[in-house]
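dumping this here so i dont lose it
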């Protein structure tokens, strides 16, 4: 997991919203764009960052690219955060 690119990807609220939408299932860029007021070029940029962080996967279906959540990476993130915060809460230092 590329930690720096992962955290960079998660800092933007629009990218977090894209991930939330993809939790419901795979979507095309056109379907995702219906949830945002910015341009398709901006959406493409956000998707590129999420893909670079390995948070989303792509699959070509005819003329469409379908985006889906990379659940193996999101599970890793959950474990990382749980480990980080469980140590912080219990008073351990790293």
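and the seq i came up w/
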């Amino acid at each position: 997991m590329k930690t720096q690119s992962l955290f960079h990807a998660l800092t933007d609220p629009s990218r977090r919203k894209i991930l939330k939408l993809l939790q419901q299932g795979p979507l095309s860029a056109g379907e995702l764009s219906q949830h945002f007021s910015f341009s398709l070029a901006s959406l493409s940029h956000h998707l590129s960052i999420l893909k670079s962080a390995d948070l989303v996967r792509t699959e070509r279906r005819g003329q469409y690219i379908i985006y889906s959540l990379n659940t193996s990476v999101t599970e890793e993130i959950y474990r990382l955060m749980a480990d980080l915060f469980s140590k912080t809460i219990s008073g351990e230092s790293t």
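The mean pLDDT is 87.
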